[in-house]
Specification:
The protein is of the alpha+beta class and 164 residues long. It has two helices and twelve strands.
Length: 164
């Protein structure tokens, strides 16, 4: 009788441990805001370093997101070596019209939780996007994400390479 009770208790502990591991895949989510008022996973944006900057601008007569290729180093020697602090992205619209910013993983290569950030920026507006580091490691199998303007298909976007 004690063995049956012990095995049931052990099974419940293992099930509970397995379920908490699944919750870790969704550890906070993306937060969008201003530098002074924004925060992600309890950390203020103004207390974080900006990891990547994206700017909507005119290049050669085309509206583009600059730079066309960005690299986010999450290895221990890069951004990942800073004790779990979130990644902070700065997004600026330097154009004279509204411009969209969409950062997402390729839908064919993405895992079960796909990061799909969509914001609209007014002319001259800057927004900050805070992303928990753990969320970035689960969004794509191919280690690449694409950024573009979701409002205008003709505008040129770019590619973000995540090194893990």
């Amino acid at each position: 009788m004690h063995r049956v009770l012990l095995s049931v208790l052990l099974s419940l502990v293992l099930v509970a441990a397995g379920s908490t591991g699944a919750l870790a895949l969704q550890s906070g989510g993306v937060e969008i805001g201003d530098l002074e008022t924004g925060s992600v996973v309890g950390q203020s944006f103004k207390a974080l370093d900006v990891d990547l900057e994206f700017t909507a601008m005119m290049v050669g007569g085309k509206k583009v997101w600059y730079p066309p290729t960005s690299v986010l180093n999450l290895t221990k020697s890069g951004t990942g070596g800073r004790a779990g602090r979130p990644v902070l992205l700065k997004v600026t619209n330097a154009l004279d019209t509204e411009h969209g910013f969409n950062l997402s993983a390729d839908s064919e290569q993405a895992g079960p939780w796909v990061m799909d950030i969509k914001i609209v920026l007014k002319p001259g507006e800057t927004k900050y996007i805070g992303v928990p580091t753990s969320d970035l490691t689960y969004v794509t199998a191919s280690n690449t994400m694409k950024y573009s303007c979701q409002l205008h298909d003709a505008h040129l976007g770019g590619q973000l390479l995540v090194l893990r």
